[in-house]
Design goal:
The protein has helices at about 10-20, 65-70, 100-105, 110-120, 130-140, 140-155, 165-170, 195-200, 230-235, 285-290, 315-330, 350-370; strands spanning about 1-5, 25-30, 40-45, 50, 60, 75-80, 85, 90-95, 185-190, 210, 225-230, 245-255, 270, 280-285, 295-305, 310, 335. The two termini are about 20 Å apart. The chain is of the alpha/beta class.
Length: about 375
């Protein structure tokens, strides 16, 4: 009998397991996949190139607590992520910045004020930002919305931006300077030895047992407390219906690079045009810093079928989740944590922060009253 059964060996489950084991509990971690690390799993492909099986995972955070915690299990390689968008036969920085505007409109705007004035002249004011279309056109206008956002969003989510919550596109910044970094966080690094190595160290504890390729149904009675990080609707047998998720499919291409050269100018190139079936192309050696005589590209195709990646942010889906959350509140000795268990779009650092906070609020309180 284990003190805690943790279902899922991604960030949420692995952080919870480490904290629980370090507080004296015996922990069993199971994952139906054949590996740990969840969607952050990386491995060396047939050509020896380190790739992320489930798409690019770039670590960034403003949380000293989260960065400090993970630093106990990995060294870091500084990496500032940059993205270009393929638009009208050229590659322009994404998120939009001064260089994006100058390139697409053949302008020579020289100051932040110039760019702000230009975007203001194009913007379509909205009294309220209800949808992602509202969020974008209110900031940059119809033309940039059509060229950079609409097609990409339609492919990514299977919905028009006018059907998605404003938060989907509102989280993408618009800059008036020439900063071409995708993120502006204080800590922007990649695990020096890769994500899988980080997870192996997280879970390397004498009070943790890990079983991959194992379904919850096979071990469901062998614990006192359950930590569930899978889809919340799966836990309840989808009794209220299935929560919608978007999934991804990847097509891999490896090319020789005998001089160690890189194939793309940046790690990720977005393809917002709807005529192009994939959304982006990732070259992993940018992210990992690996030197190699080959380089692997992943072409990313969003899908309605497959492993759940992204909760679909629509009001009706939130209402459905809340019905499951009400059931979860009545579950004794079960803790729900993570992106899928709480039906939230969360970055990796946010998942780690949520897991640390959940451990503190649920399990440290138990110790205090023991």
């Amino acid at each position: 009998m284990y003190d805690v059964l943790v279902v899922g060996a991604g960030f949420a489950g692995s952080v919870m397991a480490e904290r629980l084991a370090s507080s004296g509990r015996r922990v069993l971690v199971v994952d139906r996949r054949e590996h740990v690390a969840g969607n952050a799993y990386d491995f060396h492909d047939a050509s020896g190139v380190l790739v992320h099986r489930y798409g690019p995972h770039i670590f960034h955070t403003n949380s000293e607590k989260v960065f400090g915690y993970l630093s106990r299990f990995t060294g870091w390689r500084p990496y500032e992520h940059r993205v270009l968008a393929a638009v009208d036969g050229r590659h322009v920085p994404m998120p939009i910045n001064r260089d994006t505007v100058n390139a697409l409109y053949d302008l020579r705007l020289a100051t932040d004020a110039d760019v702000a004035a230009f975007l203001a002249s194009r913007a379509e004011p909205r009294a309220a930002l209800h949808t992602s279309e509202d969020a974008v056109v209110a900031k940059v206008g119809r033309d940039l919305y059509e060229r950079l956002f609409r097609g990409y969003t339609r492919k990514q989510w299977g919905l028009d931006p006018s059907e998605l919550h404003a938060q989907v596109c509102a989280r993408i910044p618009v800059r008036t300077n020439t900063d071409d970094r995708y993120f502006g966080d204080a800590f922007q690094h990649m695990p020096a030895d890769g994500y899988t190595a980080l997870f192996e160290r997280l879970l390397d504890h004498p009070r943790i047992e890990v079983r991959t390729g194992t379904d919850f149904a096979d071990v469901r009675d062998d614990h006192r407390h359950l930590v569930w990080t899978g889809p919340i609707d799966d836990y309840f047998g989808r009794r209220h219906g299935a929560l919608p998720y978007r999934s991804l499919r990847f097509v891999s291409e490896t090319r020789p690079t005998p001089g160690g050269e890189l194939l793309q100018a940046v790690g990720v190139i977005n393809h917002p045009a709807e005529a192009t079936p994939y959304t982006r192309v990732t070259e992993y050696r940018h992210l990992t810093g690996q030197r190699h005589t080959a380089s692997t590209l992943h072409y990313e195709y969003p899908s309605a079928e497959g492993d759940p990646y992204y909760p679909v942010p629509r009001p009706e889906n939130r209402r459905l989740y809340e019905r499951y959350a009400a059931l979860a509140a009545d579950e004794g000795d079960v803790t729900f944590v993570g992106r899928l268990a709480r039906y939230q779009y969360l970055n990796m650092d946010q998942v780690v922060g949520q897991a640390l906070a959940t451990f503190a609020s649920v399990f440290e309180r138990q110790l205090a009253h023991a």
